[in-house]
């Protein structure tokens, strides 16, 4: 490793320190989202002082100013120094400095809750669910099992009982899934030409966000989301769209029958489970799949040489701490698909968070 490092990096570990502080940077963004900083700045027609933001969001001026400065430092907000406090000069408590803060285009697009491409729900889930789980990562590595019991007091073998432990938690998780396809949905839907599949069923399709991208890309195909009754009800209540091209159907793909289809989509499903359970599900899909049909797996694929991608490796650790599965390289997905009867396996790396694998019956 040393031969790849500059002398300055060996003399002072800049990259290591950046990694060490990564969790703090995450929490800066998480906290600003939870407090409503980005929504307030988006709605404002002009830059705001820390005092103004603190007053609107019911926080301390000192704490808010430090948070806003950190957001400027990581280039999410912008700041301009002023000569005086303007409309705030009559306040009893003086600000430690005179500055006005405004949002960057990236913050307005991805961090404000009201944006069409908002990742707010993803951030809330990361902050309130994933962050506490990762606090027990050492135990997860030592024990080789998830930390739902230690973190939330729930049985480790009931993964989705933990994820769906309340209506509020289920909606948070669904928001996470919805946000994921804001970024990656179009790339996944168009990774392969799927126009030959007239009837597409997204197993565990949650809010229908990926299914809608499929419907947009292939308007002549019918697209159905198949998920648990409580998930479908929540999706239709909280994530529905006018003139929705997607149909919802209730069921359990592990314990019940799955509807017939030309193409089955399993997006971020296989990585939740150990290989044996994955093989059972894939065999069930193969047996139900129409001749000439196929299955599309959507996962964050590892490199065969174990050198990345870093994001997929981190996702794999998350599967350890939260679920029962793992992220895998293409060869392992190919092995499972061929073992259950599928052939003509094609792999597409999108260059984004998630990749696609298509196999036919």
Query: How many strands?
Result: 10
Helix/strand order, N-terminal first: HHHHEHHEEHHHHHHEHEHEEHEHHEE
Q: What would the average pLDDT be, to the nearest integer?
A: 94
Global structural class: alpha/beta
Please describe what this structure looks like.
- This protein is of the alpha/beta class and 361 residues long.
- Helix content is 47%, strand content 14%.
- It contains 17 helices and ten strands.
- A seven-stranded mixed β-sheet has the order 6-5-4-7-8-10-9, with helices on both faces.
- Helix 13 (209-217) links the parallel strand 4 (199-203) and strand 5.
- Helix 3 packs across helix 8 and helix 12 (167-189) packs parallel to helix 13.
- It is globular and about 75 Å long.
Helix and strand topology:
Elements: H1 7-11, H2 14-20, H3 22-35, H4 37-43, E1 48-49, H5 50-56, H6 61-73, E2 77-81, E3 99-103, H7 105-111, H8 120-134, H9 137-143, H10 148-152, H11 159-163, H12 167-189, E4 199-203, H13 209-217, E5 222-227, H14 229-238, E6 246-250, E7 263-267, H15 275-288, E8 294-299, H16 310-322, H17 330-339, E9 343-348, E10 355-360
Parallel strand pairs: 4-5, 4-7, 5-6, 7-8
Antiparallel strand pairs: 1-3, 2-3, 8-10, 9-10
Helix pairs in contact: 3-6, 3-8, 5-6, 8-12, 12-13
